[in-house]
Amino acid sequence: MKKYSIAFTLLVVLLVSSCSSYNRVLKADDYGAKFDLANELYDNDDEVKAVALYEQVYQRMPKSPEGEVSYFRIGKGYYVGGDTYMAGYYLGMFAKRFPTSPKAEEALFLSALCGVAESPTSSLDQDATELAIGDLQQFVDRFPNSALVDSSNQIIDRLRFKLEQKEYDAVKLYAKTENYRAAVSSSITFMDDFTRTKFREEVFFILVENSYHLSKNSVSSKKMERIDDTIERYRTFVIEFPDSKYRNLAKRYFEQTVKDKEIFIEENKK
Length: 270
Description:
The protein is mainly alpha-helical.
């Protein structure tokens, strides 16, 4: 027990001494010592603690080689520490302030990843997701030969699917709540925006179904136009998806729409 007590005491003394040394350098005016200690901490995986020293070095000599290293490592320190907001700012600004730096590529990529981390689930507002896509695309455009381009494109695809999922859920909600007009317009917009979506068959059927209900409940002045739209959409649907699981139900909507058209024409002859 005595041996463990001595070892613990020595450890406490070393930690206190280390903290005292760090605080002394932090408060002193020797910027060379600050930079050296910051590098030592950074190289020993204590990036977060190094940030305060690097901030002082950069403020003192922003355009020097030491300032360049300091600014990058400030951003990297925040990144390692999980502060994506501050990391994104510093790493993004690094790529602008030091565009020819060998670290500009890594900085811009990590800055984009900070934006990705801010992207919420698909049920929430997706402004942050769109910004993250823009940041990643900026990286790809600036460094088209980077080894990180494939990773960037994969992340972009994942983020775009999140946008797709949100719009798909909106289409389904309009249909579920019998908001026929919104279901029709959102279906068309969805298929225009996401031409290769895996949800295309379902959304196209939602378009046909809600076109039918919209025409059925339409005012007289718009009824014929909406009937014709429903018929045209059905015909396009069965051409594109001849074996669709929705085909029989879609056909019933079509046949009823044709009858509604005949009735409407007869009524307007009187």
